[in-house]
Amino acid sequence: MLPSPRAPIVTQVVVYKVGSADETFGKTGIAHFLEHMMFKGTKTVGPTEFAKTIARNGGRDNAYTDFDITGYHQTIASDRLELVMRLEADRMANLDIVDKELLPEREVVLEERRMRIENVPSALLDEKVRVKLFGLHQPYSMPPSGYPDQVRALGVNDLMTFYRQHYMPNNAVLIVAGDVTSGAVHRLADKYYGTIAAGRAPMRTRPDKGGPDLPQEIVFQDKRVVEPTWGRDYIAPSFRKGEIGHAPALEVLGRLFGGGELGRLSRALVVGDRIALSASAGYGPSSLGLTNFGLDVRPAPGVDIATIERAVDREMKKILDGHVEADEVERVQNQLLASAIYSQDSLGSGPRIYAGALSTGGTVEEVDAWPQLIADVKPADVVAAARHVWRESGCVTSLLMPPPKDKT
Amino acid sequence: MKARLLALAGLLTVAMAPAAGAVDVKEVTTPLGIKAWLVQDKSTPVIALSFSFGDGSATEPEGKKGVTNLMSIMLTDGAGSLPAEDFRRREEDATASMGFGAAPDLLSGSLRVLSANRDKGFELLRLAMTEPRFDESMLEQRRAQAIAALNQAEQRPNTVALRTLTATMFEGHPYAHNVSGLRDSLKTLTPDDLRKRAHELLSRDGLLVSAVGDIDAAQLSRELDKTFGSLPATADKPVLPPWTPPTKPRTIVVERPVPQSSVLMAMPALSRDDPDWYATLVMAQILGGGQQSRLFEQVREKRGLAYSVTASLRSYAKAAMLIVSTASANEKVAETIDVIRKEIDRLRDDGVTADELTDAKTYLSGSLALALDSSGAVSNMLQSFQVDRLPPDYFVKRADLISAVTAEDVQRVARKILRDQVITTVVVGQPVGLTSDR
Question: Which class is domain A2-192?
């Protein structure tokens, strides 16, 4: 419950503790396909009526499927909260999937994959990197959109079985933000969600190590690529898995090393050596299992990859050798804290942050303690975190490039 | 500094008492005559400023295509005695972020800053606009990035589709040019070109400003005069020629090696100041404005031909288009275009039902408030109203203008806009059964 009186609107978020990483190989794409079918009718609400009712009442709604979570959002005038709770609770308990709706929607799901993945070379490479980094047929190496031949084979029974296993009030997180009182939210939540029978929520497991044959190198050639991109991903702990104590320092390291144009990589490769068009790093700790710490460099025209790798290694070595200064750590901490303050200014950010944490085993107290965790990071912690994660035995190096020019 | 930020960052779950919800826009005129809209909101420690100058990339001279965009990027790449890196560091230290962007008719800018750092944020903005450095070494970096971005965009089907469509619809008019410019002209741009362009565009006569957040009228007035006061009061603004819309249908296929083709279908529409503009908005909503639209139902729900299919209006100072946008597997894209054409014809010939009209009007009235997610979102929306020459109480008036639209109004604009004889269709991919007709 996140009150905000700034505008007479309210956002309801229901997140289920299930995502594509809870699928089994052979049935990939099922969590995402089910998310689509959640809009296709219940025993009492006709197909397409869910979204139409929201729109007819001046609201907006959306849904998404990630590796660990599946989320449903609606934003609407605050006096319509009861309506969206009634509809969301109804499809939590009474979903009704029929072939007539499933068959065309399966084509829609495949079109979505073409748009997001098959039309985009970097997305295709990302799928290949994940297979090496996390291992074949593992939770985080199977794409959330599913493999097309497996999606084509999914039917009503598959989806209904998955729905019954995972969609129940005790496997969901409800967040309401906006211009409402806590009392009203509790009353409505008891009335609509409180009456749905609880079930046995499945245990969720994630491997405690990465792929079996690391390090690995992948070169992916695609004629839609104009200029090469170099990348490297390391297996890294999250807030939930691995050496979780390193997570806050890894967030600081990500920014310090590769956050924006003031990051060390960009200053060294783009401004200093002038060998790259851009250079960045990224790390996200909100994952139930292990996550990745990624580096990404777009070489300047004509610069060979070996030069890029040497420069990246040189910059990494400085950190591994202990060269992290107190003032640059503080600068990054201020940035991260400022981003937390700016997120208070947005109705969407707060619910997203809490929903993500609560549905991957976190608590409200842990979310609220995050600024302090970040503020407490010392330069030595950053070095220790880098030494823990930047290991050859835990990385995949990748190169996305155009095919060699045809000489004929 | 860290301790102060930490104290503020811990407030994420602090409850605030419910208060008035409506957006209360105040007009502010500074001693120097700068006019601004203000929504004061003390519930957030943030100030968001959005502003624009009334001229953009469309008036660039031949041979300098891309200069406005490159200049707008480089305004924040160092100013006064501060080279790029020092400038950026000051910006970070002030927990501020600012940026500029070019559009065909506009140069726009924004500033976001914590109210505790208000003076520092505005001072950096002043420096960026009045003393930009345009250092040679930074220019080389931005030039290389801009050219690489142009190259990669040529392989992105939806970008290629939009550029092809713009070049076709505006053939012979300055709007035909891509804001990002041309490789050949980007290669020759010098710091002096950028300086000259900044001087041409940054003046107070076309300036429109919106501010939202923790700042009052007196503070805003002072900051605006300090920040924008030393810009020239007036500048010569070249006048764009009128646009002659295409009078023939056209289909253009651009080959790209992708499994899914991107499609854009455009028709000339009514300009923003036309009294029938609201009827056009309602018509576009019924045709392709979201999950209850006809295109969504026929193309996606019934046939599974596409993930996304929308109809939207794109307005320029001197032009307007209705654009239908979708993407479909190469094997199915011809059928998708067929279905869309049938829906365009049906709406034009048979009009809309009373239920469709009510639903579309409800959605259009209600959805505006939903976009007010953050201070920046509110100031951007106010800014767009200013650009469209709308009054400060437009938030209130808009609902009445939309609710006044009748089924006859929609039918009338449908007959004017939804005409087979003027549809320009662009398909990018490897579409089966489709070829360019010229």
Answer: alpha beta
